[in-house]
Automatic annotation (TrEMBL):
Record key words, sorted: Molybdenum, Oxidoreductase
Annotated organism of origin: Ramlibacter agri
Classification via InterPro entries: Ald_Oxase/Xan_DH_a/b (IPR000674), Ald_Oxase/Xan_DH_a/b_sf (IPR036856), Ald_Oxase/xanthine_DH-like (IPR016208), AldOxase/xan_DH_MoCoBD1 (IPR008274), AldOxase/xan_DH_MoCoBD2 (IPR046867), AldOxase/xan_DH_Mopterin-bd_sf (IPR037165)
Oxidoreductase in keyword set: yes
One GO MF term attached to the UniProt entry: iron ion binding
Protein name: Xanthine dehydrogenase family protein molybdopterin-binding subunit
Length: 791
């Protein structure tokens, strides 16, 4: 089956099937890494740098080693020369043709620490408390060096790495600068904007956790880890760091309580625990606490940008020119370098026909936690920049926000953007019109007057986002610097009684794959959803897969499953043909039944499955027994979800408090497998995106480099009562190049919502003379902006 339209009509597709996994979670039966305890298990605690930048003069472990229960204290000296450092998975080539600066990223610090939280030593003890107490007794003598945390100061700061004396990692650019400059020279109107995309801490509900285990009997390692892509974790750890053969290492990512990108990466702790398990011949467990997570999880965003939009007198976009400084933190995390480049600048066309775009990115090292993908990765940064400047342009040109957008929207597909991507389908104007109707934009003026009567300012903000999901194809990504493939695998094991186990390389950590993937298989085979179970997250059980990130799972992992189902169907048809004494080509399969064209002969799927395993009446001369197929799928293009979001806020000018009053989101995710799950995904994304716009901000002290927002007391996480009830709807243009017609939905809310909210806040503040504001629009910032704008 190739046609997505046909697939969308099958039973189970588009049904709000309740999540199969929830019984386990709601009854407390989930098995998260910290729930797992192995025989002969010890506990690790990490000694982390209290300084943002320092030379390590000495590490004294004697006192810690003598403390009760301590098994071993490992320092940088113990790992030096025995293993590599953490690799970066994406090589960026600078505009001068030189490769990016790729400094060593040691598992335990080697002579220097570069951010508060950098891993200096690992203590292993009989209990968690003993390990933590002993970690405090490790005496590290530091020579403190000057620290830099702001990307704008990086070039002048003292060098973090010898290899990058000016702290510069790379300069990267896309587009034709001369052509763009020429358009700007003649433009009727140019809108300019400077903005900061604030740094965020991912804060998944389950903090990171890992257990390294080792069996002397067969020289095999097992790593249990809260991770989004166990095969990638294993590949990076074995090939790049520990130099072990892959088949000797099994990585199991059991139930994982959210990742939002932060659990894609190979972290130093995972390596240290796995390696130590063999050294000590015991299992070693570590569970991160929340404070440690704030310090040591990879953070998100942290861009400083300048953008300029050239228009003709009618507001038609002619060119976009952007410069971005991206903060990479102290070391290169696994996919850090792709975020401000390939995943960012290629999205700057947005939904618009802008013919010329030039974007230049400088990426810098600073004394902060490494920065990497976080729900959206690159796409939120592009959307925020573009949708902010478009709204500002609308105000400058005195054209309504929605009208200026509509004048510039792409309406014919496929559409080749000037920044490499080719969009296959979309209905941008349709989504905008639907959003306008649902948001009752016509009634806005009346609502604004009602707010004014209460002494409040009301504003409306738009964002018409696009994103690219399921990075593809592998060969092009490889040419752009990816050091990994971007395919996915799927295995379908049909059991003799006709039930099915699906093995997928995708990993579900909240997205509901156990339900939606089962829906896909059940729809295709015409069997109940209950008869399909999904296995994921175990390199020992699942064929090599690339895991879950970039909202790729249903469109890439689901497509791999569809390919495996093609093989199942082809083989099952041959068995059915034999059973019904028909020619192979005459057998058809639909709704769980095999039929012979032009006859009333039919047999159910279950009978074919049984025959495959009890091959008494079977064409053994032509066909192997069994019904078990594996497929790998490498997508030919990204999927391009898109939509329009409309936010309405009320601002109290006396206090600066912003209240989000209404939020309308109209998305295009192509064919939707499970609308309930998709709605949940949009809700989660919106909450994170609106959290970024109004509340969340990761702040390091400028002088000391200390993390000032190191707990939920200082870092404002969004809560349910910060939000109104969201109004959601969809338009549907199925993706043309995957068999399901799906487009990713997991990040859309986080990508589309920040500019909608900020545009609404700025709209509300315009009458007070406020021209600009960076996220988050916290009461203090809003109040200060109002005071500063007073004549
Ligand atoms: N789906 C659907 N129909 C569509 C698209 C998706 O029914 N047209 C379903 C899928 O089958 C899947 C879910 O919606 O059950 C999300 O699918 P998809 O958009 O393919 O995204 P992934 O499964 O690849 O999830 C990754 C995405 C990302 S990149 C982040 S970050 C994120 C997100 O998902 N992290 C999450 N959502 C999260 N949700 C939870 N609870 N926890 C996280 O860590």
């Amino acid at each position: 089956m190739g046609a997505s339209d046909g697939f969308a009509k099958l039973p189970h597709i588009g049904e709000k099937v309740r999540r199969k996994e929830d019984y386990r979670f709601l009854t407390g039966s989930g098995q998260y890494t910290d729930d797992i305890n192995l025989p002969n298990q010890r506990y690790a605690a990490f000694v982390r740098s209290p300084h943002a930048h320092a030379t390590i003069k000495s590490v004294a472990t004697e006192r810690a080693a003598a403390m009760p229960g301590v098994v071993k204290v490992f320092t940088g000296a113990d790992v030096a020369g025995k293993m590599g450092g953490l690799p970066c998975g994406w090589l960026i080539t600078s505009t001068d043709g030189q490769p990016m600066k790729e400094p060593p990223h040691p598992i335990l610090a080697q002579g220097k620490v570069r951010y508060v939280g950098d891993h200096v030593a690992m203590v292993v003890a009989e209990t968690v408390e003993q390990a933590r107490n002993a970690a405090e007794a490790v005496e590290v003598d530091y020579d403190v060096l000057p620290a830099v945390v702001d990307v704008r100061d990086a070039a002048q700061a003292s060098a973090l790495h010898d290899i990058a004396p000016d702290n510069h990692c790379y300069k990267w650019a896309i587009g034709d600068k001369a052509a763009v400059d020429a358009v700007f020279a003649k433009a009727a109107h140019v809108t300019k904007l400077d903005l900061v995309n604030n740094r965020l801490v991912p804060n998944a509900m389950e903090p990171r956790a890992a257990i390294g285990a080792y069996s002397r009997a067969n020289d095999e390692y097992t790593l249990y880890v809260a991770n989004q892509n166990p095969h990638v974790e294993r590949l990076l750890m074995t090939a790049f760091v520990l130099g072990l053969p892959e088949h000797k290492v099994r990585v199991i990512a059991p139930d994982v309580g959210g990742g939002f990108g932060s659990k894609i990466y190979l972290y130093a702790e995972d390596v240290a625990l796995t390696w130590a398990a063999k050294q000590l011949n015991c299992a070693v467990k570590w569970t991160c606490d929340r404070s440690e997570a704030f310090l040591s999880d990879a953070h998100g965003r942290d861009h400083v940008s300048h953008a300029e939009l050239a228009m003709d007198s009618q507001g038609k976009f002619q060119a976009l020119r952007v410069h971005t400084d991206a903060n990479l933190g102290a070391y290169l995390s696994t996919f850090a370098t792709a975020v401000p480049t390939i995943l960012y600048a290629t999205l700057l066309a947005g939904q618009y026909t802008t013919p010329q775009i030039y974007c230049e990115v400088d990426a810098w090292f600073t004394n902060t936690a490494p920065v990497d993908a976080y729900r959206g990765a690159g796409r939120p940064e592009a959307t925020y920049l573009l949708e902010r400047i478009v709204t500002r342009a609308a105000w400058e040109m005195n054209i309504p926000q929605d009208e200026l957008r509509e004048r510039n929207m792409i309406t014919a597909f496929p559409y080749q953007t000037p920044v490499a991507l080719q969009y296959d389908t979309g209905d941008y104007v349709g989504a905008m019109h639907k959003a306008n109707a649902l948001a009752d934009v016509k009634g806005f003026d009346a609502r604004r007057k009602a707010s004014e009567a209460k002494g409040l300012k009301r504003g409306i903000g738009y964002s018409s986002y696009i994103e690219a999901c399921g990075i593809a194809p592998s060969n092009i990504a490889g040419a752009l610097g990816a050091r990994a493939g971007l395919f996915e695998c799927g295995e379908i094991r049909v059991h003799p009684t006709g039930s099915v186990t699906v093995f997928t390389g995708s990993h579900s950590h909240g997205q509901g794959h156990e339900t939606t993937f089962a829906q896909v298989v059940a729809a295709r085979l015409g069997i109940p959803v209950e008869n399909v179970d999904v296995v994921h997250g175990d390199t020992g059980r699942v064929p090599f897969g690339m895991g879950t990130y970039g909202s790729r799972s249903i469109s890439v992992g689901g497509a791999a499953i569809m390919k495996a189902l093609d093989k199942i169907e082809a083989k099952a048809k041959k068995i059915a043909a034999h059973l019904m004494e028909a020619g192979d080509g005459d057998v058809e399969f639909a709704n769980g039944e095999f039929t012979v064209k032009g006859t009333d002969k039919k047999i159910p799927f279950g009978q074919v499955a049984l025959t495959a395993y009890v091959p008494h009446n079977y064409p053994l001369d032509k066909l192997e027994p069994g019904l078990n197929e594996t497929a790998f799928y490498d997508p030919t293009n990204f999927t391009f979800p898109a939509g329009t979001y409309v936010a309405e806020v009320e601002v109290d000018p006396a206090t600066g408090v912003v209240r989000l009053d209404k939020f309308t989101a109209v998305d295009d995710f192509g064919t939707i497998i499970n609308p309930m799950i998709v709605e949940g995904q949009v809700h989660g994304g919106l909450v994170q995106g609106i959290g970024q716009a109004l509340l969340e901000n990761c702040v390091y002290d400028k002088d000391s480099g200390q993390l000032l927002t190191g707990s939920m007391m200082d870092y404002a996480m969004p809560r349910a009562d910060d939000f109104p009830s969201f109004t959601l709807d969809t338009v549907c243009t199925p993706c043309t190049h995957n068999p399901l017609g799906t487009k990713g939905c997991g990040e859309a809310g986080a990508i589309g919502s920040p500019p909608a909210v900020m545009n609404a806040v700025l709209d509300a503040l315009r009458p007070l003379g406020v021209k600009d504001l960076d996220m988050p629009a916290s009461p203090a910032r809003v109040w200060e902006a109002i005071q500063a704008a007073k004549p």
